[in-house]
TrEMBL record, chains A, B, C:
Organism: Oceanobacillus bengalensis
Stated name of the protein: N-acetyltransferase
InterPro entries the record matches: GMPPB_C, Hexapep, Hexapep_transf_CS, Trans_hexapeptide_repeat, Trimer_LpxA-like_sf
Higher taxonomy: Bacteria, Bacillati, Bacillota, Bacilli, Bacillales
A Gene Ontology BP annotation from the UniProt entry: diaminopimelate biosynthetic process
Domain Mannose-1-phosphate guanyltransferase C-terminal stretches: 80-176
Any Pfam family matching the protein: Hexapep
UniProt keyword terms in alphabetical order: Repeat, Transferase
Any one GO molecular-function label of the UniProt entry: transferase activity
């Protein structure tokens, strides 16, 4: 086996780190104590990895945003990716720069989290779930497998997003340039699997949206809605 | 090129194996005859790969389950991943330990299969499809692209799951602790694309669920259902 | 660091290329000027990468199709993957051979594009979106995150596909062998998030399909449809 100096660690790594084979650590990366990083994972320039963080295999962390000619540019704020202590990152995960992952957060395999996102402590982001840019997610949320959290959204604390939930943030579907707005989901609400939330809708506190529902307008607190379009039901 | 001893093969590899560049094979891995493994793929400790298995590039196979503080722990049974002969595993795939992949199974690119899963011979798991823990899938099933097979589910033989089908297994959406139960889909049934199945529903034999339907209760054998919620239709 | 000769470049690489660590470039690959390739990415045999193309980390490009016993074989035409100038490919992306990616196309992280696909100039394929085989996509299209573009489909120019849109191409769901046919989406149409399109439907020009709609038959030009099944609405 190659010794440390022959691997591709361009930053200082604490002795307590356990690093897999073919790990790449670019420069200006900070690694806390007792960090584990799986094989073939890459930590890009400037990222900060807290104590006791566990990262799986084949991950790419700290990605700089990129666009083509037709895409809106993200604000260039030169911030780094920060992953707080005790977080667990799965395998084949991508996470962007300018994003903050809270303490003891779990990010599942194949998930992707974009730039300018904050994820509160102990929140779970399921496997293959995607969190787009400029979104704030509270503490103790559960975002299940293959759920799609669009950009410019707010999820308050203790929100549950079922598998395959879909959200959108552009009511003109690319036809006009305006300030995109995703859903605002208030604390304690639960969204059933494969439900669809339209741009800018607000879901009240402790409200339940049924599986497969299509939410086209704001929903009040403490009720249950279902159907296409979603309407209040007695439970 | 590096010779074998300088690569990261910590188990004994048959001469008949064709291994890509940057492949990592951890210890206690068993590799059959005529196995092909693509570049940058990792086979984790204890996995068993049968004869004539073909594995793509950038895969992670044999992953140990991990959880955060708020997630249920998986039963620790210390079993290994077993991939039987003739299976084809795509690229950028993740598969967990304690899972058995049958003969001539096809697993598409970007797919993920979790722990304590069995997949019957010749079944197809489409690209980016996800199979969660404790699920049994029969023989000759087709699970299409981006379909989500939740945990604690049963799919009998010859089941067809269309693309983007969504299932769930937790009727309280995280609010109570109970024995989670996914759908039970009986032999020969077909589920249309983007349909939603609620926790614990049974789909009868040779029944057809239309595209986009939301199945909220058990469905009898040999019928066709569609709509939100799904109802029997004449065909 | 290793020098170029000790890396795994089996083709001739221009001096202007910026290549990450652990990059694998197989033989008969053509690389244009000013190409950037991230760490751990693999360019498979015969691929052609145009000038100024930027490729992220952990990608697999130029994959040969593979099937199991129960899958239809793809036409073996021995064509290569061609990525035209200025395209940007994200991280953890898979793209097959016999496919042509147009100029300045953007392919998001975790996306997959199969064989015999053409993607027109400046089109955006969102993260974790999947484009299946034998599909033609025009110029200036936007295919959003987690959208599923099935095989044998046609998307004309300026089409907008919202996040999590689902399409299918097999009306018998595997029960019969026939010529599969995906949707034909005419120019300027917009499909809302999580809508479902059935096999072979035609969506007229400049038509809008609402979020969560299920399109079961052809839709005329210049109208808006919504609901399950989708019907014309006044807007």
């Amino acid at each position: 086996m190659l010794n440390r100096e022959e691997r591709f660690y361009l930053s200082i790594i604490p002795e307590s780190a356990q690093l897999g084979i073919h790990v790449v650590i670019e420069k200006d990366v900070k690694i806390g104590e007792n960090v584990v990083i799986g094989h073939n994972s890459t930590i890009l320039q400037g990222s900060e990895i807290g104590d006791n963080v566990i990262i799986g295999n084949n991950c790419v962390l700290g990605i700089e945003p990129a666009v083509n000619l037709r895409m809106r540019k993200t604000k260039k704020n030169n911030n780094k990716l920060v992953i707080h202590s005790g977080a667990r990152i799965g395998n084949l995960v991508s996470i962007y720069s300018s994003t903050v992952i809270g303490k003891s957060v779990f990010i599942g395999d194949h998930a992707s989290v974009r730039e300018n996102v904050t994820i509160g402590d102990e929140t779970i982001v399921g496997r293959a779930a995607i969190v787009e840019l400029n979104t704030k997610i509270g503490k103790n949320c559960t975002i299940q497998t293959l759920a799609y959290v669009t950009g410019d959204s707010i999820l308050e604390d203790n929100v549950f997003i079922g598998p395959c939930v879909s959200m959108s943030n552009d009511k003109y579907m690319g036809a006009k340039s305006y300030d995109l707005k995703g859903p605002h989901i208030k604390k304690g609400s639960k969204i059933g699997n494969n439900a669809s939330l339209l741009p800018g809708v607000t879901i009240g506190e402790n409200t339940i949206v049924g599986a497969g529902a299509v939410v086209t307008k704001n929903i009040e607190d403490n009720i249950t809605v279902a159907g296409v379009p979603a309407k209040k039901i007695n439970t």
